[in-house]
Amino acid sequence: MSSKVSKVLLLFLFLYYCTNHTATALSCFPADAAALLKLKRSFLDPNLTSWRRGTDCCRWEAVACDAASGRVAALDLGGRGLRAWGIDPVLFNLTALRNLSMADADFMGGRLPSFGFELLTEMVHLDFSFNTNLFGQLPIGIARLRKLVTLDFSNFNDYPYPILFLEEPSFETLIANLSSLIELHLDGVDISSNGGACSSRSTALCGYCSMLACGIGVFGHMLF
């Protein structure tokens, strides 16, 4: 009798585990899925075939979710050669993102959004390096991302002038606010308006700073 009870109990526990494991695996947050689909539509020929309505966004390529909440926690679209007319603001609906890479994309003359990055308060690693045809001021909201560990806006291009720049906030303020920052890449970003504020004291606040061709002379590359 005890053997039968044990078998029933084991079967119950097995079914319970399977049911809950499946539910966890399929717990894509609906609003995040909708945001990703809209983001996909903003790209020309995105080749993201697994991104389909009615499927679990946590299983889509380049996407990783938080197991407990189903929120999208990582989005790695770097190195895919994506093209778009700028950055769709729907990206900032993914407020649980901790890791985001949009490296090596062509934004075809689009400007960096002035607002939106400040909503990504969980961000730890942010990579917009080697984007072509993306213009404008580095968003002020980035200075509010207190959990940021790595920040990369490296940008070398064929234009006779820098297409990305940092004027407001000042470089020193940006670094001081990003208290968790360990690695910073701003190669090719014009920060010359900061003048003497870009000092060894401010750059020493992050572990590694790479700032080649930034219009700041001897502070073009620093390692501490």
UniProtKB/TrEMBL annotation:
It comes from Eleusine coracana subsp. coracana. It is found in: Membrane. Residues 31-66 form the Leucine-rich repeat-containing N-terminal plant-type domain. One of its GO terms (cellular component) is membrane. Pfam families: LRRNT_2 (PF08263). The keyword Repeat applies. This is Leucine-rich repeat-containing N-terminal plant-type domain-containing protein. Residues 1-25 form the signal peptide. The keyword Membrane applies. It is a single-pass type I membrane protein. Its main location: membrane. InterPro entries: LRR_dom_sf, LRR_N_plant-typ, RLP23-like. Keywords: Glycoprotein, Leucine-rich repeat, Membrane, Repeat, Signal, Transmembrane, Transmembrane helix.
